[in-house]
Specification:
The chain is α/β, with parallel strands linked by helices. It contains 7 helices and 10 strands.
């Protein structure tokens, strides 16, 4: 669960359509001594890269081999159909798989939907990539069903996309080798789950210590008596001392007696004027 050697960088792989920018920003703010190295990989290569140890973690599309890889699902994407702007479905708010029954369906080799039965009429050839398939859609060859993030990634002015409400969906997850759950991996898990820096289960950072000291100082300050309370307490003590001097001890005033102890001794020191 701990890093045994100094790490020069943390390698994070991610697949097309995933945007790790917000997590990268938090990482750079918290883990200032370990830079985050980003690796963009085709969806089909992400899991093998993790298994080969060529990345420390990855933002991948499920499913993955759960016998060797740990995975935390992060979100599920909306599935959309990409069509030419003049297509009959371009004006619809949303569509169903049945609405695609008459269309030629482009099925790229890097498809991430994982259809059991492809809707519509299968194209004679499979495009090599999703980007190639979008170009064929723009040419009026067919339609393409993909996660919404990929439709945005390959967006063109001459195509549009609409949600397919009953189509299979693609799920994005954070994944890493199960036997390499290092402190830095724990830090990344905390970041993608939205944990604060104080609740992170990863490394303890020097930035956490001053915050703990500040809290201790604030607690100690709350326990101190207010200035008004302190004055009232000492005033009460002086009142008790004064009442003690009235009993005849003379210690309350702190001054020695000048007479023989009779009352009015203060006047005996002055000579009387003869009449």
């Amino acid at each position: 669960m701990t890093d045994t050697q100094a790490t020069s960088s943390f390698r994070l792989a991610y697949v097309p359509g995933v945007t790790p920018a917000k997590w990268v920003k938090v990482w750079n703010e918290r883990i200032t001594d370990v830079p985050l190295a980003l690796l963009t990989l085709p969806a089909a290569e992400a899991a093998p890269t993790l298994l080969d140890g060529n990345a420390d973690a990855g933002l991948v599309r499920l499913p993955v081999d759960r016998t060797r890889l740990s995975a935390i699902p992060l979100y599920t994407e909306t599935t959309v159909v990409v069509v030419p702007k003049e297509h009959r479905l371009a004006e619809a708010a949303e569509v169903t798989v049945a609405d695609l029954a008459e269309d030629i369906q482009l099925h790229p080799l890097d498809d991430v939907i994982g259809w059991e039965t492809l809707p519509g009429v299968p194209a004679k050839q499979r495009p090599a990539t999703t980007g190639d398939a979008v170009e064929l859609v723009a040419a009026g060859i067919g339609v393409l069903v993909v996660p919404q993030s990929l439709a945005r990634l390959h967006h063109r002015r001459d195509v549009t996309y609409r949600p397919v409400v009953d189509a299979p969906q693609s799920q994005v997850a954070l994944s890493w080798l199960e036997d390499r759950t290092t402190d830095l991996v724990e830090e990344l898990i905390g970041i993608v789950r939205g944990r604060t820096v104080n609740s992170s289960r990863g490394r303890s950072t020097p930035a956490e210590q001053p915050k703990a000291t500040a809290k201790a100082k604030a607690k100690a300050k709350q326990q101190r008596p207010a200035p008004g309370d302190k004055g009232r307490s000492s005033g009460t003590g002086r009142a008790r001392t004064g009442s003690g001097s009235g009993s005849g001890s003379g210690s309350g005033s702190g001054k020695p007696k000048s007479g023989g102890g009779k009352s009015g001794g203060a006047k005996s020191g002055k000579p009387r004027r003869r009449s």
